[in-house]
Amino acid sequence: MTSHEDFSVKETRPNISSRRISTGPVSSFDLVEHMQYLYVRVVKARELPLPCDPYVELKLGNYTGTTMPFQKTPNPVWNQVFAFSKDRIQDITTEILVKDRAVVVDGQGHPTIGKFSFIVPEAPMRIPPDSALAPEWYRLEGLNGVKIRGELMLSFWFGTQADEAFSEAWHADVAAVSGDFVSTTRSKVYLSPRLWYLRVNVIEAQDLILKINNNKVEASVLLVKAGLGNLSMRSRVSKNKSVNPEWNEDLMFVAAEPFDDPLVVSVVELVNRKEEHCIGMCVIPLSDVDRRIGAAPPANKWYNLSMMVEGQQKDVKFASKLHMRISLDGGYHVLDEPTNNISDLLPSSKLLWRPPIGVLELGILNATGLSPIMNNRPSDQVWAYCVAKYGTKWIRTRTIVDSLEPKWNEQYTWEVYDPCTVITIGVFDNGCGNNKLDLCMGKVRIRLSTLETDRVYTNSYPLVVLTPFGLKKIGEIQLAVRFSCSSLLNLLNQYAQPLLPKLHYILPLSIYQLASLRHQAAYIIATRLSRAEPPLRKEVVDYMLDANAHLWSIRRSRANFNRIIKLFDGIVALYKCFEKIRKWTNPIVTGIVHIIFLVLLFFPGVILPTMFFYFCGLGIWRFRRRPRQIAYIDTELSTASNVTPEDLAEEFDPFPSRKNSIDDLRRRYDLLRSLGGRIQTVLGDIATLGERVQSLVSWRDPRATFMFVLFSFVAGVIAYLVPFRILAFVAFIYELRHPSLRIDLPSFPRNFLRRMPARSDTMI
How far apart (Å, rounded) are the C-alpha atoms in residues 207 and 333? Predict the structure, then answer.
């Protein structure tokens, strides 16, 4: 990284309707600059001469677009839209040629059956929400200008990117893309599948018929193996050495709607701790599994185990049985991204969803100064597109071909159910298929709780990526963001609610279970989105979900350690101040401290009011210096500006390692990295907790700081009016209250603190 590179966020003033007084028609696309397009819809033709394989060719200046050909039909139907950017139109006449693909003329290509042309400035203007322009029949002309038999139905108009034909149209700037990959350049909206946690509680088995150790039951090694799709999990070995083994263990899976794959559960006998012999199995369709939204345990059932004969499942009259509880737990939120950057907190079951509290609008305007990335293309070309993810909704902009200054000007909207969530926007270089990767060019994270409601934020964000060669700035992206809420009371009420659905606290999952389930969820989402058209590539989904955030990185560990050290700066400063007071460095200050100490000693009731009033005053004092811009990546905090090549080589080494070394040494090294990743996560969580405490009066989340300042003032008044001894007695009795008076949900202060923003949002 060079020292002159600027990684700061800059405020911009684009020409968008939300920032200016509009004198023309009002459009819902008020966060982007309006771009004019000439749209030509070719619907169909009739009464063309036979025999012919007709197709349509549009010519406008240097741009040429064609439809799909039809074989031996005089009445073809295309219904295809072509879009030409008004800024790039180089001619005033558009020619529409109907050609015959079945005939080839030497040196001239396919012959022209007929043509139609119109003057571009004469095209009418259409502004949504006007209805679509009705197509009309136009008589075709021969090359000599004489009317011929055959008509062409089409319509043409000027519109903007708000036109409903925009996303499906063939854009002239993608003419360099081959026909098979044009679909990968179009803008699309994707939805993640609804995910559920599948809990398989294996209790016991009965009347097992052992194959290997039938005569020595005490030497049998029995376990349960469950599989869902491509994932398989095993229980621990039963300690009960009999034909009626017991496990009482939960196996957790992530299942996606629609539930196509059945659950396959089998009892396995291990031989020499390696070979597996299936004793029996059962196949359970997920459509037959109970769905629960509360903590009540599902009904336990006995399942017949089918025998395996020559690898085939065979039902028997008297079968062994397996005792299990199986349920689809809809009270959990299926985590698919790190909790620090989570964008969705809703449970799986829609019955538990609360009404949305607001709307998030994102305008993706343009990018500037993009640096080319080698993607099997000339080194001076970039085919950039953006992907934004919030909740289960993913959006993908169109690909701007061969441009270092792409302009998208596309606007999207999401419903917001919780303000303490993060939207992620990534920029990628389109590989356009052929097994070429879509290379990442940087991403932006924006925490909604740090946004003021109904304010439009227009900023230019640097696109920063960490490469094996160091930190690199790829360019800048310009975004417009607005968070609107319908009810301020409902918005503030969210800060008192548990961050995750209640079932996460009533029946908590272990850290290891959450980590495994998160990987399953990310894999399912990547698989589903890669099957869409156009596909959202796996490397794109993994980059947006931070699928490798758990892996060991000495750079991130060093950054988290520095965050913890910075939290103790206040304590160190307080100690130094106390040393100065103790040494009478400033006699006046020392005298004031003596007086304050005597007041607190003889009037202990003012301690709590003083503390709360101090926080209230501190928050009010810092209000004028509150952050005005959205927090972004801090390269110094991430220790990415001075990272060493050895640290980068370790960070970009995949897991498991691909280094050529002794196998045992590699396994030990991977284990060390796995343990280090957990330590890294713990250090990050500790740092996040401390930074959330600091955020109470930082005004980074203006609503939360306002609530805390108001609470501090009210609490200070109450603490001043109510005797200290009464407050201490009530707090003591409340803290040591009987368990029957408690609820298994986090308290209000804990919920409020967990919603505070931390500096983890600004880390790479």
Answer: 38
